[in-house]
Amino acid sequence: MKLNIGCGADEWGDVRLDVTRTPAYHHRSGGSPTVNIIADAQHLPFKEDSFEELRIHEVLEHLPNWRRAVSECIRVAEKISITVPIQSYLPKHYLTSIYAPTINNFKLILNLPKRTKEHLWQFNIKILTTYLHNCGLNIEKVTVTYSPIVNYFKLLKYVPLFKRSWCIIATRGKNPKNTHHPTEPKKAFKA
Predict the structure, then answer these.
(1) Is the pLDDT of residue 110 over 50?
(2) 54 and which of 31, 77, 84, 136 could share a cystine (Cβ 3.0–4.6 Å)?
(3) Which of 167, 29, 32, 6 minimizes the C-alpha distance to 86?
(4) Given a cut of 50, is residue 3 above it in pLDDT?
(5) What is the pLDDT of residue 46?
(6) Residue 188 — very low, low, confident or very high, per pLDDT cuts 50/70/90?
(7) What are the strands, taking DSSP E only, across the chain?
(8) 159 confidence band (pLDDT: 50, 70, 90)
(9) Residue 99 has pLDDT above 50, yes or no
(10) Contact of 86 with 161, CB cutoff 8 Å
């Protein structure tokens, strides 16, 4: 079975879990609810080894205790897919300067990542993958997802602004080390 944590409108997985039945963005987009279990990623209501595969995309940065969520993911699934946003390299208020309406419309067209007050954490990919490895996970693959405009203008993938998320695919080792109280990373910092 497959578990999708923080599924929102995503219909991937046999079990789709979120903190609310219909997240606020569902109402705006007119989407139908896809959530079948309401629960917190930091306290998953499943037995150990309940799932073959788990997806937790764009969720960890919102959680007060993301380490606990990672521990829970390791407990319930063999294979884990994690994505976290790549923070923009632009200065914080650059995009909301004099040309705010034009820039905001441009951001919508390009589907660029937005800074949001809902993000509690920013992640350094090297530190995050080291942390996952220290939790007993074997990192199989680390990739970058890009803004959709990169599909049309391939050279834009070399511009940091168009990088959206890190995607990490990991599997649990035979003997996960210290999954419930892994060592603290040195640099996962508050947004």
Answers:
(1) no
(2) 77
(3) 167
(4) yes
(5) 96
(6) low
(7) 2-5, 15-18, 37-38, 51-57, 77-85, 121-122, 137-146, 163-172, 189-190
(8) confident
(9) no
(10) no
* Structure tokens given for 55: 């997806």
Amino acid at 17: L
Q: Is residue 182 part of a domain?
A: yes
- 112, part of any domain: no
Q: At residue 122, what is the residue type? A: Q
* Sign of the C-alpha dihedral computed for residues 169, 175, 181 and 183 taken in this order: negative
Query: Residue 101 domain-assigned?
Result: no
- Which amino acid is present at 56? I
Split into its structural domains, the chain has a count of: 1
In a domain, 78, yes or no: yes
Domain hosting 74: range is 40-87+117-190
- Residue 59 confidence (pLDDT) above 60: yes
Taking the CA atoms of 58, 35, 19 and 180 in sequence, report the sign of the dihedral they define. Answer: negative
Tokens 């640099």 — which residue?
A: 187
Residues, the chain, total?
Answer: 191
Which of 122, 44, 61, 55 minimizes the C-alpha distance to 82?
Answer: 55
Q: Which of 56, 71, 84, 83 is nearest to 172 (CA)?
A: 71
Chain mean pLDDT for the chain: 77
Question: What pLDDT, on a 0 to 100 scale, did the predictor assign at position 33?
Answer: 58
Q: Which residue has the tokens 């929102």?
A: 8
